[in-house]
Amino acid sequence: xxxxxxxxxxxxxxxxxxxxxxxxxxxxxxxxxxxxxxxxxxxxxxxxxxxxxxxxxxxxxxxxxxxxxxxxxxxxxxxxxxxxxxxxxxxxxxxxxxxxxxxxxxxxxxxxxxxxxxxxxxxxxxxxxxxxxxxxxxxxxxxxxxxxxxxxxxxxxxxxxxxxxxxxxxxxxxxxxxxxxxxxxxxxxxxxxxxxxxxxxxxxxxxxxxxxxxxxxxxxxxxxxxxxxxxxxxxxxxxxxxxxxxxxxxxxxxxxxxxxxxxxxxxxxxxxxxxxxxxxxxxxxxxxxxxxxxxxxxxxxxxxxxxxxxxxxxxxxxxxxxxxxxxxxxxxxxxxxxxxxxxxxxxxxxxxxxxxxxxxxxxxxxxxxxxxxxxxxxxxxxxxxxxxxxxxxxxxxxxxxxxxxxxxxxxxxxxxxxxxxxxxxxxxxxxxx
Length: 433
Prior knowledge:
Pfam family, one: SBP_bac_1
Number of strands: 17
Number of helices: 16
Organism: Micromonospora gifhornensis
Strand content: 15-25%
CATH topology of the largest domain: D-Maltodextrin-Binding Protein, domain 2
Number of domains: 2
Shape: globular
Strand order of the largest sheet: 4-3-5-17-9
Signal peptide: 1-22
Largest sheet: 5 strands, mixed
CATH superfamily of the largest domain: Periplasmic binding protein-like II
InterPro entries: SBP
Keywords: Signal, Transport
CATH architecture of the largest domain: 3-Layer(aba) Sandwich
């Protein structure tokens, strides 16, 4: 079905427009309006924040307060929505045309999907993209669908090896492991010499990607329209993760809330190494028993036989296409503020998050931030994900697979074959096996 523009809403900046993507219809332009005085903007906006409510939420609330210093009459209804629920919750509300937020913090893989369904405003030609060249290319690319741009990059990230410097030093390990084989050896040494577990592997699909990428694997080939998740390379990568647990080098993951268990053990110095991202830096460094930021080491994920790299991740700001036109000016002003270099630098300093603007890296708070510097090396090794509408649906089957392999002891290739069949039946039926 052909998708064209259904309407153009005039922004706060004269002659700039937002376009609604939907099925059928023709372009209809409204007359230009003068730029609004920030203090004169009056609106009530709902924002769904999908960040961690305890670790990251307070910093976003601080930014809202800063925004209201210059936009006192724009009320932001801040709602913390669990990340694991937000994708389907937004789709349900947008489809029903009721209850969707005006603005959403969307995971990078969600944007092409929401755009393909007509649930987002296209931002091309708007004030929000007037300085698009300032955004890093990969985060900006995640907002593209069918030649248009539907989101503004908020933060970029990837998975890294996070480690306890003190425990590695006690074990006589002078540098973080650079390969999975080195990680296995180091983990066993740490356990023998310190009593702490060497590493904790989170049994979730996203966290399996560094193992799969390490052997040269991937999930799909968009150009060939082929499902490759059950490749021998991916099976080999999963076998490495499984062996870490089976051999005792890694802690046996919990069947319930494995992620929470991983973080608790790491913060309590009962596990020396984990695979995780910058969103947990503030949580770890502020833990009373960890030893502060100076005890936290960050390095690229270990390499397999083919390469080293975690998945490109991050989040974007998107605007619901069902939002009333009279809120446009306020919504643009809010997103512009939240995505500014100053706001990104603020979040970087507070939380260790990685900016998506080139100019933000010139701000002293970012330039001199050791966490940002460490994660820049991590991001340089990150593996790009396919920005297709179905990409947001890949991880449900992958999560089930990770549980089967790492907790239920299922054969990696057999578990991946199950994922491939599910992709073919439910996610990308037009792709070949």
